Amino acid sequence: MPRNSEVPPESFNEILAWLNPDRQIAGTIYVQLRHDLAKIFVWNKCADPEGLTDEVMDRVARKVLHLKETFEGDPRLFFYGVAKNLIKESPKKVKTHVSLDDTDLPAISATDIDETAEMREECLNSCLQSLSSEKRALILAYYAKEKQAKIDHRTELAQQLGTSVETLRVRAHRIRATLEECILRCLKRKAQGK
Question: What is the DSSP letter of 45?
Fold first, then answer.
């Protein structure tokens, strides 16, 4: 789910302060809250649980200053309420799926597949070049490894950047969303140019 909002930079600190005055405890609550929200979206069979979790955080971040003053009770309940609303909204955004069982599809040649893969690679390279060198280096490093090596590498990368793994993940998600939009625009232009 692409993120289209400008979230004030200080809002993350405000969210932590709202969750608990002790920053260490607040950080633990925040990580558990993200995990719980992602589970809720998985249980409700939502297409992009991580993206929807990010959207919950963005929506709360935009209102956190007001919420700290007016909301009474456990702040996590507000996050869960936003998640519930997103679950109601998400079916509206999902395209209807149609069965292809009784449909005659045109044969796709190996050449078509190769051309499509080549176009995607060209678009990816072009879009990577359009990023700032800092963002390009971050996203390439973020996706450099696999399995356990990936986890270890991301932990090291976060330490090098002086940030948490969670913040690193959010940064990478935002860069990836920008790249995805760029690639889709590029593929559309190339398809129209044929």
Answer: T
Q: Please, are residues 23 and 74 in contact by the beta-carbon 8 Å criterion?
A: no
> 192 with 13: CB under 8 angstroms?
no
Q: Domain 124-193 carries which CATH code?
A: 1.10.10
pLDDT at position 4: 46
Q: What is the pLDDT of residue 134?
A: 93
Alpha-carbon distance 65 to 57, whole Å? 13
Sketch the domain layout of the chain as residue ranges: 11-93, 124-193
Encoded tokens for 186 = 């590029």
Ranges of the chain whose pLDDT falls below 70: 1-6, 91-114, 194
